[in-house]
């Protein structure tokens, strides 16, 4: 009897370990004839995701939506998509954006390339730009990841959510030229002068964020194939900075709507 109990315990332990192993992001091997529709996720913490993770948020929802891991390997996409600050990354707009784009493309596999770094100013998003807090070079790191990701497919667009760090009036006034320069740099890197670029408004729950939103509103009139996603109705998680879970997911869907609209213009 005791022996039977021990055997059952061993079997149970084996099953638990197997289940835990399956919870990790599995590396995806792409066939030589497969080509991903690649999308770049850029910005600071609201792109990286700081919203609370629910149990269902950590599950793979669509095997045709992949993410480019920290180790630059493709894996089935699930939250958290980003890895900029381990331990605090949560739900952002990236996954819901990818799921919506795959539903639109249907036969295509979507590849999400997370590059956002929480807390970064737009001043760090230039070649050799350095972020002291994370000791990273956000643009340089993003460029390396984009170049590697392009081996698996074609970059179809970029979504950008950043500006909280530049929302003081003086910084906001000189924000737009820096953003335009970044767009031009990324289009040159990807070899597509008309690459769709969608920027997200900052949350309306913080009055000073209007300084950046006023600048973003000018972008579509100055740069072709760009759009801005509204943050109207979105709520924060209680810190007046970061979107809550439902808002982050909704913002991702809004990014997808604008991206699809831009792609139809071509």
Automatic annotation (TrEMBL):
Protein name: Sialate O-acetylesterase domain-containing protein
Keywords for this protein: Hydrolase
Lineage: Bacteria, Pseudomonadati, Bacteroidota, Sphingobacteriia, Sphingobacteriales
PROSITE patterns: PROKAR_LIPOPROTEIN
GO molecular function: hydrolase activity, acting on ester bonds
Species of provenance: Pedobacter kyungheensis
InterPro entries xrefs: Carb_Esterase_6, SASA, SGNH_hydro_sf
Keyword Hydrolase appears in the UniProt entry: yes
Pfam family, one: SASA
